[in-house]
Write a structure and sequence with these properties.
alpha/beta, Rossmann fold, 3-stranded antiparallel beta sheet, two-stranded parallel ribbon, 7 strands, binds adenosine monophosphate
Length: 198
């Protein structure tokens, strides 16, 4: 939605890794087992992916989805941005209850090609699981599974939650109630991006 509305480049290491896995590359094969079981891939691999992506697409502003996820990644991102005489403007913290997470994961459908995300309960896709943006197949992710979710939640608590205070201290943090519907959440995110652009 951010890319479509603001024409800002967005990337997500999770999406990159899924594409590499589908293409059968060495990186995709090496990281598949970890991701499939809900673990975090090594900081070195993830930071290199982000650095390469920034070199190709990072000229006019960017959004990372699912990065950084560890303190070390956040510190190394700051280093990469310093070299480009820039810094993190906004760290958006989407707060969702565990109940919301479980419900969304249980019914998430994702486009294998472009990453568009919707829900099995959405009437529009009940008969035809095809992406409305790129005609790619809408599929269930293999890590959207109840037992994998427990590992992902544990990883989040131990490794990602400490980023709250990191971004609170540097003033970039904005907490957003992510339990609301997509349009309400997007309206708040859009408002923050517009404010930041002034
Ligand atoms: P996501 O699509 O953001 O849910 O990520 C899917 C999977 O990719 C995660 O469970 C991790 O295995 C891996 N991954 C994505 N982003 C990161 C990151 N910033 N650090 C480490 N692993 C990541």
């Amino acid at each position: 939605m951010i890319t479509r509305h603001f024409a800002i480049s967005v990337t997500s290491p999770g999406a990159i890794l899924r594409r590499e896995r589908d293409l059968g590359t060495t990186l995709g094969m090496e990281t598949e087992e970890i991701s499939k079981h809900g673990g975090l891939v090594s900081d070195d691999i993830i930071v290199h992916l982000i650095e390469d992506w920034l070199n190709l697409h990072g000229q006019d502003g960017f959004v990372f989805d699912g990065f950084p996820r560890t303190l070390n990644q956040a510190q190394r991102l700051d280093g990469l941005l310093q070299n480009r005489q820039t810094s993190v403007d906004l760290a958006l913290w989407l707060e969702v209850s565990e109940g919301t997470v479980r419900d969304r994961i249980a019914s998430r459908l994702q486009c294998r090609r472009c990453g568009f995300t919707t829900s099995l309960t959405s009437a529009s896709f009940a008969d035809r699981a095809i992406c409305p943006y790129c005609d790619g197949p809408l599929i269930r992710r293999d890590d959207d599974d109840a037992s994998v979710l427990e590992t992902r939640l544990a990883e989040f608590k131990s490794k990602t939650e400490p980023l709250l205070s990191y971004y609170e201290k540097n003033g970039a943090l904005h907490r957003i109630d992510g339990n609301r519907d997509r349009d309400a959440v997007f309206a708040e995110v859009a408002g923050l991006i517009e404010e930041g652009a002034k």
